[in-house]
Design a protein that fits this description.
Layout: H1 22-44, H2 52-82, H3 87-94, H4 97-116, H5 119-126, H6 135-144, H7 151-160, H8 165-178, E1 180-183, E2 191-194, H9 198-202, H10 207-223, H11 225-246, H12 253-259, H13 263-275, H14 277-290, H15 315-329, H16 331-342, E3 346-347, E4 359-363, E5 368-372, H17 379-397, H18 410-413, H19 415-430, H20 436-471, H21 478-493, H22 506-509, H23 523-542, H24 547-556, H25 562-570, H26 577-596
Parallel strand pairs: 3-5
Antiparallel strand pairs: 1-2, 4-5
Helix pairs in contact: 1-2, 1-4, 2-3, 2-5, 4-6, 4-7, 8-11, 13-26, 14-20, 14-26, 15-16, 15-17, 15-19, 16-17, 17-19, 19-23, 20-21, 20-23, 20-26, 23-26, 24-25
């Protein structure tokens, strides 16, 4: 088995010495034993009303088990991201499935007990001192219990998940991880690339490369479309079957529950987005002119502006910029960044075998985060560094809370990251050392992000919504998936894209449609982006006096729904379109500056 990656920049030894070391083996063996024992205890306990003390003790142990599972999962995810060939870590990660099954079955017993408990008995349980601060999390378990089958069937569903629903997701992951395509740029010899390189190639300055990348990767996905269609049919079909048996009223309800928002809030946000999409479309038309194109094609959405003189930003200079911007605006954020740099929380250097993308993960046992990214020296890489450190700051300010009070939904997960990113961008725009070309690049990056959240994410939502509507009547063909994807692209991008340069295979290439743990992995991104922009506007208006309320908001994200968090800390009504329109106004302001630059 392979040893720990020696070229990674970060220090993972606070987690474990190594995947093959005794400390890891001991931890894993104990986790297996405790997961099985906890499941047995949960299934044997008397009702809540008859054994409140037993249930309180079990819940404390359940939380501890979840913390340990998150700790080891974070470690293994870091290992497999830093080195895609790390088979020891990959095997250990898949080896956690039995623990997850035991945990799922424990939760089946907990939900059943909560559903059967009289209101007074449940309230008394929440009043136990050992569960202080966990009330919101436990109440959500009780609410979720309303969507449960009888315990035996829920247990069967948990048993089947690794070889049924999750298996389709793994099949897609295996396919996407090995699929390759030919980049055939006119006048050059074709070059083979993994499909994971598509995103990078679509950011190339050469329009011929971008066009060839979309065409080549599209041809590769077309070649496996029968398999991806089978995966998407199976994932959506399995969910719909379980929803029906569990009494779920609408296929959006579980996604809204997971996101911690109400349907009225989603409707208000999407209503504002639909009404203001032309802000993003006007940007795309303006960008086409700057690129010398009559209309952008789908392959041009991430194209950089022409910049023959674009300077690279060294890692040392990039970290200095982040430190300076954080320090001037928010010293506590700078302190966290300094801790991340000096204690080696970040794997940033480019190297072979490193997976693409970026993330921030954390260990509830250590109270530390780890940031994964690949830094090439572009201005966007400085932005990414700030973004991921924002996630680390969110984790940091919550580190003293119990695990269940730190479990915030995806809708609120981008608050601190976007805030930190905007702090650095604002500082760069305001700096006299920033060239006019760099200012234009920053505005273009901001508006490109806005176009994703106002156009691309709603496109994904519309596509997935139609898939679930039609899947209820039977399987969809490859041609039908293509048609629904193109319909969604036309509806959201309008005439901002060339009609003959869309991406019919986006549905096959986008991992988010194949994630088995959560459905509608799309609208929370737009929510988080606009919510965060609104928070940044408050900070710009109020300055340092806003920061204590901002930290109170971050600390509350795991203890209440998004509507209550916003209302209690900032006095905002998320069900009212006014807030969302205000956030989009900021994008319109950026567009005005971009058009004048």
């Amino acid at each position: 088995m392979s040893a720990a990656p020696t070229l990674a920049d970060w220090d993972l030894t606070p987690f474990f010495t190594d995947v093959v070391a005794p400390d890891f083996a001991t931890f894993r063996a104990q986790l297996d034993r405790d997961a099985a024992a906890l499941r047995a205890r949960a299934e044997a306990l008397a009702p809540v009303a008859a054994d409140r003390d037993g249930w309180a003790a079990l819940l404390v142990d359940l939380e501890d088990l979840g913390a340990r599972l998150r700790h080891v999962t974070a470690y293994l995810s870091c290992r497999t991201s830093a080195d895609a060939a790390d088979q020891a870590a990959a095997g250990a990660l898949s080896g956690l499935d039995p623990v997850r099954v035991d945990l799922d079955k424990t939760l089946v017993a907990v939900r059943a007990a909560f559903a059967a408990a009289p209101a007074a008995a449940f309230t008394a349980l929440l009043g136990d001192a050992r569960l202080a601060g966990a009330g919101y999390y436990l109440d959500r378990i009780r609410q979720r219990a309303a969507w449960s089958m009888e315990p035996a069937l829920e247990g069967l569903a948990a048993d089947l998940a690794p070889t049924a629903l999750r298996a389709w997701g793994r099949l897609y992951d295996q396919l996407s991880g090995t699929l390759r395509f030919s980049l055939a740029v006119p006048g050059r010899a074709p070059v083979e690339h993994p499909v994971a390189m598509t995103r990078t190639l679509l950011d190339d300055a050469d329009p011929a490369v971008r066009k060839a990348a979309l065409a080549g990767s599209g041809a590769a996905w077309k070649g496996v479309a029968d398999v991806t269609a089978a995966c998407l049919n199976a994932i959506s079909g399995t969910r719909l079957t379980l929803y029906k048996r569990r009494g779920v009223g609408h296929f959006l309800d579980p996604a809204l529950f997971d996101a911690g928002i109400e349907r009225a809030t989603l409707d208000a946000m999407l209503g504002a987005v639909r009404a203001r999409q032309d802000v993003a479309r006007r940007y795309l038309r303006e960008k086409a002119q700057r690129l010398g194109l009559p209309r952008l094609g789908f392959q041009d959405l991430g194209a950089p502006l022409p910049r023959p003189d674009a300077a690279r930003v060294s890692w040392d200079d990039g970290t200095r910029r982040v430190r300076d911007a954080f320090g001037a605006a928010y010293p506590a954020l700078r302190d966290l960044a300094e801790r991340a740099f000096t204690r080696r929380w970040i794997d940033w250097s480019p190297r072979a075998g490193k997976r693409p993308g970026g993330f921030c993960t954390s260990s509830p046992l250590l109270g530390e985060s780890r940031v994964f990214m690949t830094y090439h020296g572009a201005l966007g890489d400085v932005q990414t560094l700030a973004h991921e450190l924002g996630h680390a700051f969110h984790n940091w300010v919550m580190r003293d809370l119990r695990l269940w009070a730190r479990s915030y939904p995806m809708t609120l997960a981008e608050t601190a990251s976007t805030f930190a990113e905007e702090v650095v961008l604002d500082a760069t725009l305001a700096s006299p050392d920033t060239s006019a070309a760099d200012r234009l690049t920053i505005l273009d990056t901001r508006l490109s992000d806005a176009a994703v959240f106002l156009l691309n994410i709603p496109m994904r939502f519309d596509f997935e919504h139609k898939v679930y509507e039609e899947r209820a009547a039977g399987e969809l063909s490859v041609d039908r998936f293509v048609a629904l994807m193109l319909d969604a692209q036309r509806a959201n991008y309008g005439d901002a894209l060339a009609a003959d340069q869309l991406d019919p295979w986006f549905w096959a290439s986008k991992l988010h449609f194949y994630i088995t743990d959560v459905s509608f992995y799309n609208f929370p991104y737009t929510f988080g982006y606009l919510f965060s922009r609104g928070i940044v506007a408050r900070f710009r208006a109020e300055g340092a006096s806003f920061l204590p309320r901002y930290e109170a908001l971050l600390r509350a994200t795991g203890s209440a729904g998004a509507e209550d968090v916003a209302k209690d800390t900032l006095g905002i009504d998320l069900r009212d379109r006014t807030f969302w329109d205000g956030a989009i106004d900021l994008i319109a302001s950026d567009l005005a500056r971009y058009q004048q630059a």
